[in-house]
Amino acid sequence: VFGRTVICPDLVTAANVARSNGLDCITLDGDQVTKNGGMTGGFYDHRCSKLKFVKIIKDNQVEIKKKKAHLDSIGNNLKDILLTKDKKIMELLTNLQHINAEHDHAKSELEQCTVDITNAMKQKGSYEKALEKRKKSLGSIHDEIKKI
Length: 148
Known about the structure:
The protein has helices at 11-21, 50-147; strands spanning 5-8, 24-27, 31-33, 39-41. By secondary structure, the protein is α+β, with helices and mostly antiparallel strands. It has two domains: 1-44, 2-Layer Sandwich (Alpha-Beta Plaits); 47-146.
């Protein structure tokens, strides 16, 4: 069709046709194969570059390592914060228990004082009654002394 040039679907087919038939060949991608065996030209698709993909993979691996290190750092900070908070909570609970113990002790002392005051008031009442009886008896003894 094009003189002594044949269009082939791929480079392997073009190389076989050029060697066996002594024709120049060109592929659909633009690669040229001559009957003498030389190959030239062609199209290089940068979107399918293995080197580009390897670079992207390496860049992503570096980024993943950075993100993991950052995540580990955040995790360690969080652990430190939690430990600090746990210690503070334990201190507060200990203080609360101490204050509750003091409160209970003060409450029991107050109850004991209340009981002591109540007993003292009862004892005072009984002493006042006894004093009244003795005053009456003293009065009657004075009367008897006057009679005697």
